[in-house]
TrEMBL record:
It comes from the Bacteria. It comes from Blautia pseudococcoides. InterPro entries: DUF624. It holds the Pfam family DUF624. This is Membrane protein YesL. The chain crosses the membrane at residues 20-45, 78-95, 101-121, 142-170, 176-197. Coiled coil: none annotated. Keywords: Membrane, Transmembrane, Transmembrane helix. The keyword Transport does not apply. The keyword Protein biosynthesis does not apply.
Amino acid sequence: MKKLSIDHPFFCCMGNLGDMILLNLIFLLTCIPVITIGTAQTALYRVMLRRVRKESSYPVKEYLEAFKEEWKQGTASWLPFLVIGGVLIFDVMYLGREWSIWGVGTGVLISVWCIFASYVFPVQAQFENTTKNIWRNAAFMAVRHFPCTILIVFVNLIPVLCFLAGGAVMQLTAPIYLTAGFSLAARVNAELFGKIFKKCM
């Protein structure tokens, strides 16, 4: 019987899946303090962007190194999102299902929040720059590549939509995201960001 090589597609697939699970676990653990979510996203995207370029060999080690390096700037970038997001959630809870100009305005602000939150940390993971310029570049890229932006935001919102759906949908998807969902979503988006960043470099 012919022996399978470690380069066989099956073993490569299992190895990649194992990496996704480990990265997902460490990502969730580093998000627990909440204030570290921005840094965790930056670190995750740095690893995923390297995997897109086939430059990643030790993803967990690279994640920890990136988390340490991006701690200061990642926190500075995340704090405005945390504060504004909290205010927007309060508005949604306060408004309920009421349809008004205020409600429409809140919906627009939530959309802008989601777009910026989807771009700022991948941009920070790819480019060394000031926080101000990262936000400016993120806005420019999001508008210039708007079709990709819609898809990226949708991928990021899938767990939120599943949570809001509740019931069987939430019960089915929760184990997936607790196991490898967030890292897989970042991997999908990294493919899109890789193409966007290539045009900007």
